[in-house]
């Protein structure tokens, strides 16, 4: 429970600003914990990924265009997290998924 609180401390405000519910944030952090990513590592990792989606690097923008992925709605706000995940899972092949995820969520220079 302490690790989850620590994760929320780092991810909570960014998730709220990204319009991601408390329940969705908890589900993501629980998923990360199942993969042995807990506490500050999970919280900062999730927050960083969300921030990178808010302002994608050029490589991420290229991936989104290549696979016709729309992460923002008509108003320019991030789509709900489940919709973004659905876009990735339905439009990107297993072969291209690591490249797409690393370009979208991992620090890569423009």
Quick summary:
Helix content is 67%, strand content 0%. The chain is an all-alpha fold and 110 residues long.
General description of the model:
With 110 residues, this protein is mostly helical. 67% of the residues lie in helices and 0% in strands. It is built from 6 helices and no strands. Helix 1 crosses helix 2 and helix 4 packs antiparallel against helix 6 (97-105). The protein is globular, with a radius of gyration of 14 Å.
Give the termini distance in whole angstroms. Answer: 38 Å
The major beta sheet can be summarized as: none
Average pLDDT value? 88
> What fraction, in percent, of the residue positions are helical?
55-70%
What does the oligomeric state look like here? Answer: single chain
**Number of strand elements:** 0
Which ranges are low-confidence, i.e. pLDDT below 50, for 5 or more consecutive residues? Answer: none
Number of helices: 6
Order of helices and strands: HHHHHH
Reconstruct the topology from this structure:
Layout: H1 2-17, H2 22-34, H3 39-54, H4 58-66, H5 81-91, H6 97-105
Core attributes:
110 residues, globular, 6 helices, mainly alpha
């Amino acid at each position: 429970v302490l690790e989850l609180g620590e994760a929320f401390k780092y991810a909570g405000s960014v998730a709220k600003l990204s319009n991601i519910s408390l329940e969705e944030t908890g589900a993501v952090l629980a998923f990360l914990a199942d993969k042995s990513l807990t506490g500050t590592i999970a919280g900062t990792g999730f927050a960083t990924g969300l921030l990178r989606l808010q302002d994608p690097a050029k490589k991420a923008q290229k991936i989104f265009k290549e696979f016709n992925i729309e992460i923002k709605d008509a108003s320019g706000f991030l789509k709900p997290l489940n919709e973004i995940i659905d876009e990735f899972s339905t439009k990107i092949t297993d072969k291209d998924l690591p490249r797409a995820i690393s370009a979208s969520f991992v620090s890569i220079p423009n």
